[in-house]
Amino acid sequence: MAGQAPPERADAARNRRRILDAAARIIDEQGAKALTMNGVAHASGIGVGTVYRRFGDVSALLLALLDDGEQRLQAAFMTGPPPLGPGAPAGERLRAFLHAYAKHTLESEELLLAAEKASASARYKSDPYRVVHTHVQLLIREARPELDAPVLAHLLLGAFQPSLLCHLRSEMKVSEERLEASLDQLLDSLV
């Protein structure tokens, strides 16, 4: 089709995956500030020129990492097995989604905090947020058609502001299990 990017070669796709995995490991072990193109090249075993040609700079690599995580989450709730994927009742899917979204946000915390600091409102205009909002809105509408699903979806997703989750985890020492239990309580009152 006209206007579409050509399919990625198998070796290019493997290299992309190796680079993203290496970058994610560096961030997990040392933090986002430690991420350099040379460090990623060394950790991935791929030439630094290839890393630069593929991603350009560290900021583009960070965006690619965020995008990769978003694509995995979207694939899980759009086509994965129930209860996160299709086939379960709306309330069960919403619960599974909120747990998965909390885990995704916590795993991407450092990257999301940097994006939030750059522009707090940009999140709401981004394609990944729009997809997630639409998904939550549809599940709320299916579970409770009488509710104001568009607004409630924004309010539910507001609980996943990176700075709030960072505060809960770092300052208040809230565990992932406690966070999930609290989300369940919030959801029980809604659906």
From TrEMBL:
Has the keyword DNA-binding been applied to this entry?
A: yes
Q: Name one GO molecular function term.
A: transcription cis-regulatory region binding
Show where the HTH tetR-type domain sits.
13-73
- State the UniProt keywords alphabetically: DNA-binding
Q: Does the keyword DNA-binding apply?
A: yes
Record-annotated DNA-binding residue ranges: 36-55
User: What Pfam families does the record point to?
Assistant: TetR_N
Q: Which InterPro entries match?
A: Homeodomain-like_sf, HTH-type_TetR-like_transc_reg, HTH_TetR, Tet_transcr_reg_TetR-rel_C_sf
Gene3D superfamilies recorded: Tetracycline Repressor, domain 2 (1.10.357.10)
Report which superkingdom the organism of origin falls in: Bacteria
User: What is this protein called in UniProt?
Assistant: Helix-turn-helix transcriptional regulator
Taxonomic lineage: Bacteria, Bacillati, Actinomycetota, Actinomycetes, Kitasatosporales
